[in-house]
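Task: encode each sequence below as structure tokens.

Item 1
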Amino acid sequence: MSILLYPPYIQWEVVSDCNHKCIHCYNYWRADNIDVVKHSDFNAITEQIIARKPVYVAVTGGEPLLVFPQIKPCIQKMIDSGIRVSVSSNGTLITEETADFYECNNIDTVISFPSIDPEICDAVCNAENVAERLISRLEILKRHNVQTTINIVLTKLNLPTLYDTLKAVKEWGFTARVGIAQRPINASKEYIRYELDRDDFRHIVKE
């Protein structure tokens, strides 16, 4: 049997901070204004990743687009080294420049979108006007033909709108994936309050 000498997949959490505070996020407990990694460290980490010759690197956070100017040359360097790269994001900070970079480098993206209902979307993300802002950013990705997967993480809050959200995703021409939030060891009371139960799982299967 041959020995695998390199990791096929690496997930790189480039920043801890985020402009949302989603109730289902495994990083929900992190405080505001966390220091980000310095640009020099991004470069050093990039060199370490390239040296390990992974097939695929998923750039995530926190919200990775908070530090897009710093990580953009690092992503480019990984791609130039033959590594496939994707970016997981809440999508609200996407710009024409970001989408153009994705398109030119064949970068796919996973976008978190909890609900097509604006009020529920805001409640899940603990932010304002999320659905409106996100839909406009998805239009940018579509214009640039960026391969986009919509990630719907379910709690009791957004479960009632699952069907309508999936219907919207299909109409937009994107792929969707549905996930179940797993309880962190230090879960908050709010998290536990909206955690799914057995009956909810039956509803998911039906939808």
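Item 2
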Amino acid sequence: MADPTGCRVEPVRGAVTVRVVREPVARTPEQAAGIAAAWDRLCASNPRYFNGRILSFESYDAAAGVAVARDEEYRAHAAKRSVDLGLSFFGITGVLCVGEGAGTRYMLARRGESVHDYPGQWEFGPCGGIDPPASGDTLTPADLAAELAREAREELGIDLTGAELTHLALVHDRPAIGSTDLMVRCRLASEPVTASNWEVSGTRWVTLDELVAWGERRPEAIIPTTRALAAWLAGA
């Protein structure tokens, strides 16, 4: 399913496992130089950026419930606006909610003004890139839950212990950003107290109907992947 932004929602069957490909992709000298120059510009604008390892999404086998991803440098993703590398940043997003039925309320986080993509816009959160495993070539659902819990602590100062996690869908944001996010519903017992930092400047809670209506009225206020998933949830 695609929404008017061009995002595509790909429902998943049960919990997703990630198989990681370690072999690096061969790049031309021109591509390598373009990556280095783009990274230098990004770091000059925001020195908080760090060139760690991050996953790039490649494919999803619905029958097996396995996503294939490649171990990649973060700076290669950061260069995608100026160097065509064909990469899709692989992230994980928590869809935090409380309540049941039509009264369920969802948390939205406002992206900081200095983040790389969609600054100042609202989204489901927490969210972030998925790190490759320290060893081996597999990330289990438990490993992915740990990745999401880390993002929740870092971005919002909250603890997801005890949350009921359900893998919902992969949402592909292409070609605008070049990303794929695994959307994970996190059902909480109550609305947590959240903190703000340079990545997240605030939070708010809305019903699904309110979110969809807001996205239709002011689409520029909400990132495309969140609008696409909200529309999919409303029609599910």
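Check on item 2: The chain has five helices and twelve strands. The radius of gyration is 17 Å.
End of task.
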